[in-house]
Amino acid sequence: MKALHVGLVGMGTVGAGVAKILLEKNSPLLEKLDCIPVLKGIADSNPEAKNKINIPSNVLFTADARELVNHPDIQIIVELIGGLHPAKEIITLALENGKDVVTANKMLLALHGSELFQKARQHGKSISFEASVGGGIPVIAALRDGFIANRIESICGIVNGTTNYILTKMTKEQVTYSDALAEAQKLGYAEKDPTMDVEGIDASHKLAILARIGFGVDFDYNSIYHEGISTVDLSDIWYARELGYTLKLLAIAKKGENTIELRVHPTLLPHEHPLSSVHGVFNAVCITGSAVGDAMLYGRGAGQMPTASAVVADLVDVALGRAGITFAAMKTFSGCSERFPIANALQFKTCYYLRFSVVDKPGVLAKITGILGKYEISIASVIQHKAREAGNVPLVMMTHLAEEGNLQKALVEIQQLDVIKDHTKFLRVEE
Ligand code: HSE
């Protein structure tokens, strides 16, 4: 049995899961392979991390990651500390020292992927990152290997479990955003500071990685449009349901002739769309390819053992020599500096959900639709329930396909009308 020695940097939740799998006596890896990754050392700045699992005496434990990164008997470094620094420096040093790298660090890859991929190629080494998107779902492998024969046309998914949990709770139990968030925090799904998840930043990091692998292009991460769920109102979930739609936070990548649309935002999906039935902390990604057509991958997008499963799959890829071959041969990892143009929000074209707050009197609808018509925006359906008491009423509309630039201009004009009583809410729709 051949072995490749692994240095594990970061003994957090996922790190402990990886160590558990690698140290398992009756590991499935032993049954299936004749070359396996073997845990040689663990680094974590917190000495308490040592007590998370039973670490055998032949596995080095250190507070200093450099001890593993400079260790002559370690061939693979697994980076699981997250964040930009010192993760970037650890990975860079590992590559310079001739070690392959496995990481789950989506933020680092989204922001500095090109530079790190270039560094890996310079040193003839690989970076594997299956665990960076979709936890245990092998979506990177699917895009990189399984769908290689396809021109990828679109990637559309629920890639953040925290926000999907919150939206599911709001939808099914009719609780407000703040109550659903508090519950997610209590259950450990949301961080104390939930910004990265609820503002769509985590999903935009993952989208950057998926689009890069799927479309084989490089682009500026900052050009990705992202909007989170913190301003989602329960009433929009109700009206959407009445219109036949479910509200989800989607990460969407679509390749056009000359530009790519990359956007993360709350989205209305028809109830019968497969992503509408993805509930709780689950993730799912729909991929449309020129040969395969529509495909969907579904599973646990986070959590200790699902994410560890993806990390160990990468380790096996390195141990078997597959990661090195793929990394060297695929243009996707070339770190080429040529950037592909990304569409800005005004160029998006979707159907829209609009919720106006209006005074309930004759002629209001005509005033609003008059302005929408002027900007080529056609109405598909309207809901206005009878006001229970005197005052403002919500007026909800669904439009046909429209250009967002036109919609923005129309909304500015509509907002000036004296019959409009509050900020107008709009949500994008995917059919
Ligand atoms: N915070 C992420 C989520 C999990 O809620 O999906 C790690 O990627």
UniProtKB/TrEMBL annotation:
Binding positions for NADP(+) per the UniProt entry: 9-16
UniProt-annotated catalytic positions: 206
Alphabetical UniProt keywords: Amino-acid biosynthesis, Methionine biosynthesis, NADP, Oxidoreductase, Threonine biosynthesis
Catalytic reaction(s) noted: L-homoserine + NADP(+) = L-aspartate 4-semialdehyde + NADPH + H(+)
UniProt-recorded name of the protein: Homoserine dehydrogenase
UniProt organism field: Candidatus Brocadia sapporoensis
Pathway(s) the chain acts in: Amino-acid biosynthesis; L-methionine biosynthesis via de novo pathway; L-homoserine from L-aspartate: step 3/3; Amino-acid biosynthesis; L-threonine biosynthesis; L-threonine from L-aspartate: step 3/5
Boundaries of every ACT domain copy: 353-431
SUPFAM superfamilies, alphabetized: ACT-like, Glyceraldehyde-3-phosphate dehydrogenase-like, C-terminal domain, NAD(P)-binding Rossmann-fold domains
Keyword tRNA processing: no
List of residues binding NADPH: 106
